[in-house]
Specification:
50% of the residues lie in helices and 11% in strands. With 105 residues, it is mostly helical. Helix 1 (33-48) runs antiparallel to helix 4 (80-88). It binds zinc ion.
Protein backbone atom coordinates (compact mmCIF):
# COMPACT_ATOMS: atom_id res chain seq x y z
CA UNK A 1 0.00 0.00 0.00
CA UNK A 2 1.42 3.34 -1.02
CA UNK A 3 1.30 6.20 1.43
CA UNK A 4 3.18 9.34 2.38
CA UNK A 5 4.78 9.96 5.74
CA UNK A 6 4.84 13.19 7.68
CA UNK A 7 6.62 14.07 10.92
CA UNK A 8 4.63 16.33 13.23
CA UNK A 9 6.35 16.73 16.60
CA UNK A 10 3.22 18.27 18.15
CA UNK A 11 1.07 15.23 17.25
CA UNK A 12 -0.97 14.22 20.36
CA UNK A 13 -0.31 10.52 19.63
CA UNK A 14 2.73 8.48 18.55
CA UNK A 15 1.26 8.08 15.08
CA UNK A 16 -1.92 8.69 13.14
CA UNK A 17 -3.35 7.42 9.86
CA UNK A 18 -5.13 9.98 7.70
CA UNK A 19 -5.17 8.22 4.36
CA UNK A 20 -2.95 8.62 2.36
CA UNK A 21 -0.78 10.19 5.07
CA UNK A 22 0.85 8.31 7.90
CA UNK A 23 1.82 10.93 10.48
CA UNK A 24 4.44 10.28 13.14
CA UNK A 25 5.38 12.27 16.20
CA UNK A 26 9.02 11.23 15.88
CA UNK A 27 11.16 10.10 12.92
CA UNK A 28 12.35 7.01 14.86
CA UNK A 29 8.79 5.64 14.77
CA UNK A 30 9.08 5.24 10.99
CA UNK A 31 11.09 2.05 11.60
CA UNK A 32 8.78 0.70 14.31
CA UNK A 33 7.03 -2.13 12.47
CA UNK A 34 4.29 -2.48 15.05
CA UNK A 35 3.38 1.21 14.86
CA UNK A 36 3.45 1.17 11.04
CA UNK A 37 1.34 -2.03 10.94
CA UNK A 38 -1.16 -0.48 13.36
CA UNK A 39 -1.57 2.51 11.07
CA UNK A 40 -1.79 0.27 7.97
CA UNK A 41 -4.69 -1.54 9.61
CA UNK A 42 -6.37 1.86 9.99
CA UNK A 43 -5.69 2.57 6.29
CA UNK A 44 -7.51 -0.65 5.36
CA UNK A 45 -10.42 0.28 7.62
CA UNK A 46 -10.53 3.76 6.10
CA UNK A 47 -10.47 2.46 2.52
CA UNK A 48 -13.21 -0.10 3.05
CA UNK A 49 -15.40 2.69 4.48
CA UNK A 50 -14.47 5.08 1.65
CA UNK A 51 -12.48 7.20 4.11
CA UNK A 52 -14.85 9.91 5.40
CA UNK A 53 -17.40 7.55 7.05
CA UNK A 54 -14.46 6.01 8.93
CA UNK A 55 -13.80 9.29 10.74
CA UNK A 56 -17.50 9.82 11.49
CA UNK A 57 -17.89 6.30 12.90
CA UNK A 58 -14.59 6.61 14.77
CA UNK A 59 -15.70 9.83 16.46
CA UNK A 60 -19.20 8.55 17.31
CA UNK A 61 -17.78 5.29 18.65
CA UNK A 62 -15.36 7.27 20.84
CA UNK A 63 -18.08 9.60 22.17
CA UNK A 64 -20.42 6.66 22.84
CA UNK A 65 -17.61 4.87 24.68
CA UNK A 66 -16.86 8.02 26.66
CA UNK A 67 -20.45 8.04 27.92
CA UNK A 68 -20.11 4.42 28.99
CA UNK A 69 -16.59 4.41 30.45
CA UNK A 70 -16.22 8.09 31.44
CA UNK A 71 -12.52 7.68 30.82
CA UNK A 72 -10.57 8.80 27.71
CA UNK A 73 -8.16 5.84 27.60
CA UNK A 74 -10.89 3.23 27.96
CA UNK A 75 -13.11 5.04 25.47
CA UNK A 76 -10.24 5.21 22.96
CA UNK A 77 -9.06 1.61 23.44
CA UNK A 78 -12.59 0.31 22.94
CA UNK A 79 -13.22 2.05 19.64
CA UNK A 80 -13.92 -0.87 17.28
CA UNK A 81 -11.20 0.24 14.87
CA UNK A 82 -8.63 0.50 17.67
CA UNK A 83 -9.60 -2.87 19.10
CA UNK A 84 -8.85 -4.53 15.78
CA UNK A 85 -5.62 -2.58 15.31
CA UNK A 86 -4.26 -3.20 18.83
CA UNK A 87 -5.28 -6.86 18.76
CA UNK A 88 -3.36 -7.48 15.54
CA UNK A 89 -0.56 -4.93 15.20
CA UNK A 90 2.03 -7.44 16.44
CA UNK A 91 1.04 -10.05 13.87
CA UNK A 92 3.23 -9.68 10.76
CA UNK A 93 0.89 -11.77 8.60
CA UNK A 94 -2.33 -10.11 9.72
CA UNK A 95 -2.72 -7.68 6.81
CA UNK A 96 -2.27 -10.50 4.27
CA UNK A 97 -5.07 -12.60 5.74
CA UNK A 98 -7.29 -9.83 7.12
CA UNK A 99 -10.88 -10.08 5.97
CA UNK A 100 -12.86 -7.04 4.90
CA UNK A 101 -14.85 -5.36 7.71
CA UNK A 102 -12.79 -7.22 10.32
CA UNK A 103 -13.36 -4.32 12.73
CA UNK A 104 -17.03 -5.40 12.98
CA UNK A 105 -16.12 -8.76 14.50
ZN1 LIG B 1 -5.02 3.22 16.28
Amino acid sequence: MRYRTLIVSSLPAAAMALYPFMIFKDRELLSNRRVVRHELIHFRQQLELLILPFYVLYLFNYLFNLLIYRNHDQAYRNIRFEREAYANDQDESYLRRRKCWAWLR
